[in-house]
Amino acid sequence: MLRTTIRPGFWCECWTQDITEQQTPALVGSYDAYSAVEANDWVATILRTISPALDTATSQEAWTQLYDHRIDTRRALLHREHFTVSITHLGLRITWTVRPALFLPLAHRNGTELPACSLSFKPHTAD
After folding, report:
1. Nearest-CA neighbor of 39 among 90, 103, 121?
2. Strand residue runs (E) in the chain
3. 75-92 pLDDT, tens digit each
4. Does position 115 have pLDDT exceeding 70, yes or no?
5. Helix axes 70-78, 56-67, angle to 10 degrees
6. Tally of structural domains, the chain
7. What confidence tens digit (pLDDT) does each residue in 32-51 have?
């Protein structure tokens, strides 16, 4: 019998957008965090990593987010609220979003035989 246990956590995403050309935002990466601390650390680690490559004003903005606004971020996460952090560097807006999520376990398929019909599946090809 499959036992389903839901695990609370946070869905984290990083988006970029070229605002000089009004492009739509593009998803760069995502991360599933299983605690408020892990989600907060994900954003903080990326900001620390990229801040030396940013111009002075944007780097200062990143460090302000890291230190001055960190308590607000932690409070939002502990209350399981959505939060967003954005910085803009040379016309590129980088946005990190963290949302509360419920994670479902995936079924373990090792040693499990797939149904016979799965062998007749043909992937869709572009015409």
Report:
1. 103
2. 7-18, 26-33, 83-89, 92-103
3. 888 899 888 888 898 999
4. no
5. 50
6. 1
7. 999 998 998 888 888 888 88
Indicate the DSSP class of residue 20: T
Specify if 99 maps to a domain.
yes
Report the C-alpha gap between 37 and 78 in whole angstroms. 9
> How far apart (Å, rounded) are the C-alpha atoms in residues 106 and 24?
32
The parent domain of residue 92 ranges over: 7-104
Q: Is residue 86 part of a domain?
A: yes
According to DSSP, the residues that pair with 18 across neighbouring strands are 92
Q: Where are the alpha helices (DSSP H) in 9-85?
A: 36-50, 56-67, 70-78
pTM of the model: 0.72
Find the Cα–Cα–Cα–Cα dihedral 91, 32, 83, 36, rounded to 10°: -130
